Amino acid sequence: MGYRPDRKTIPIDEARAILAVHGEPVSRAERVAVASASGRVVAQALVADRDVPPFDRAAMDGFAVRASDTSGASPDRGIELRRIETIFSGATPIAAVVAGTCAGIATGAPVPDGADAVVMIEHTERDGDRVRVFEAVAPRQNIGRAGSDLVAGEIALAQDTVLTPARLAVAAALGITELEVFRRPRVAILSTGDEIVAPGGRLRDGQIFDANTTALEAAVIAHGGEPVVAPRTGDDREALARAFDLCLKEDLVLFSGGSSVGERDFALDILSARGRIHFEGLQLKPGKPTIFADVDGVPVFGLPGNPVSCLTNMYLFVAPMLCRMAHLPSPVQREATVRLRDEVVSPKGRHQVYPVRLDGEDAIPVFKTSGEITSLARADGFFEIPADVERVVAGTIVQVVMF
Amino acid sequence: MGYRPDRKTIPIDEARAILAVHGEPVSRAERVAVASASGRVVAQALVADRDVPPFDRAAMDGFAVRASDTSGASPDRGIELRRIETIFSGATPIAAVVAGTCAGIATGAPVPDGADAVVMIEHTERDGDRVRVFEAVAPRQNIGRAGSDLVAGEIALAQDTVLTPARLAVAAALGITELEVFRRPRVAILSTGDEIVAPGGRLRDGQIFDANTTALEAAVIAHGGEPVVAPRTGDDREALARAFDLCLKEDLVLFSGGSSVGERDFALDILSARGRIHFEGLQLKPGKPTIFADVDGVPVFGLPGNPVSCLTNMYLFVAPMLCRMAHLPSPVQREATVRLRDEVVSPKGRHQVYPVRLDGEDAIPVFKTSGEITSLARADGFFEIPADVERVVAGTIVQVVMF
């Protein structure tokens, strides 16, 4: 059977140090519609080509005045001005405000020439074109100045900015409809093994449906990548080699399966022949049979065949690298600080990943065994137990990484 | 100009109580491919139609044995068994294991008839078909039992489950390719005002580009909704009425604009004629001119025209309702607990929303004025200052809702 003895494993801190220096941020960019750019990352800084707002505008409903005309006005002492026109938003003033006059003005409407302040409607009384002002205003009061939001020539969205609804609004405020963003890293996903069958197919005796492709596909998208699903491949050395060669054209390769030592050997042989294997086992539970290699700068993860450790290792090791490659600041994950409800034990010398379900401020352990995907499906996230900790008592505050 | 005096405003707790009883969860469902169902919500429970795994399988590489045959084995005392075959994963055993025999078996391969345990490869020595076992195993040891993950008839994914990569893997493990999920609530987005122009168009004097449609579109998607962008409408009563009638066919309506009191009157008149206005102003800064109405069960938000308060009110008030309508448990937002670096003052009697930028464990206030979208774009999130707090000193620990 070609079994080999237990391979050497490395501590996960060592693995993380290796992974931290692999996976280059992608440099390719593409233009996308602003409306669909949420979550994408700016590849080329957007420079304001105009002032925003483009003109001085009223910040309140009221009357555009010369501030000096309101000097001495107070609730007890109204000063009378003559209204020369009313300016609605979207309209253009037709006359300048001169001494002794004012113009009715709506929020957002352009301030007419001559006026340098707006008196709020609440501090006035009007009778036809006669307006009494009961408040002294300072120059610029209740006026949004041209360029106060953005000045022409200013960088509106810097390179590497992650686009949020507010940042897309900045582009829209400049009249922009497309943005130059980094392409998503392309991530090849390859499930291997004679025992796996694509969902929707028919199982023969001894076979199971492939859950890893589906899980990895969704997780890749959630961390800024573009999944490229390779055809599933059996435990055949030549077919596997061909599959790897196709996958290695992408930015990152995730393969899973080869759960037996013999099957792993095929993958290790193929990868050694093409590049460098950095580690082939982790001091981690679950998730020990994990390979990392790079082939001409393309990082390759060999994830465990069992769906639970495949997916937790995706979160623990692949997600940080993928986010970095996608120019995203850190894994797009939520964390919760909660109280562990029940005691959990952990094997000595192995870092452990423990799925939990959240119930209010409590975390309830839901681990069954590493092969059982329902344990992960019933969990809301997981916490980590360092290798030197053997027991986490009930009541301990733990940091849960949410799925 | 038809100005009205300052309308009555209500405290935000009162507004939240009103909003909590509006917005029915959608009941419409649709079938989607499992691969694209991430983040969707199960509308019809998925019941396992088979056991997962479908057969007893080896959890380790090793030898399938009758546990009783290994009785008395120890590191010092090997027990010899005769290997009758080797079972790879995906293959079918050809013979039963009887007393004195064993079968080589790879992780994931089906356990042959007669065998009831697996001895790990590490605890054996092999010479051709002669295998020496140095460990006594108990029945079921190192075997993943048929149905240990899911038993036929069991609910694999309950209704209202939010689909994560792990939960999609459960569907895949059952061979499922499509899931019945709730439809996303359809959210009409209507920007109004004579002053606004769609990005990509040409500005006349006194006009600005519409930033709200873009911001709301992205925020609606982020909270589980399907945006339905209505054509922008000027401050014309009849055009506005027609636009509302179209929008009211959707599940939820968001309109923004009508920044002046006069413009707001149009919308209030139209909505009063069709349904009930629950509030038309909030004791909130920014975000005071906010309307909430319902028309035959369709919730209608009138959001401020200025992009900052439009978007913060989207997060504060619309997002919780939209998530509820989408069967999502709560706004899909991350929160950060951080230290406020600089003092912030807040107007008495008005709840305030304050944008901040995060710098490590610190939150740096970035507020300019409510009209300035760059203040929000430079922020990573916001925190809230209750109405009765006038000053938040530097060093205060605040809870930041992330954009």
Descriptive report:
The structure is a homodimer of 403-residue chains. With 403 residues, chain A is of the alpha/beta class. Chain A contains seven helices and 28 strands. Chain A has four domains: 12-27 and 184-325, Molybdenum Cofactor Biosythetic Enzyme, Chain A (3-Layer(aba) Sandwich), CATH 3.40.980; 37-52 and 148-182, Molybdopterin biosynthesis moea protein, domain 2, CATH 3.90.105.10; 57-144, Beta Complex (Molybdopterin biosynthesis moeA protein, domain 3), CATH 2.170.190.11; 335-402, MoeA, C-terminal, domain IV (Beta-clip, Beta Barrel), CATH 2.40.340.10. Helix content of chain A is 19%, strand content 30%. The first copy, chain A, has a six-stranded mixed β-sheet, with no helix packed on it. The first copy, chain A, has a six-stranded mixed β-sheet with strand order 16-13-17-21-20-18, with helices on both faces. Chain A has a five-stranded mixed β-barrel with strand order 22-25-24-26-28. In chain A, strand 8 (124-127) and strand 9 (130-133) form a beta hairpin. The radius of gyration of chain A is 32 Å and the shape is elongated. At the A-B interface, helix 2, strand 14, strand 15, helix 3 and helix 5 of A face helix 2, strand 14, strand 15, helix 3 and helix 5 of B.
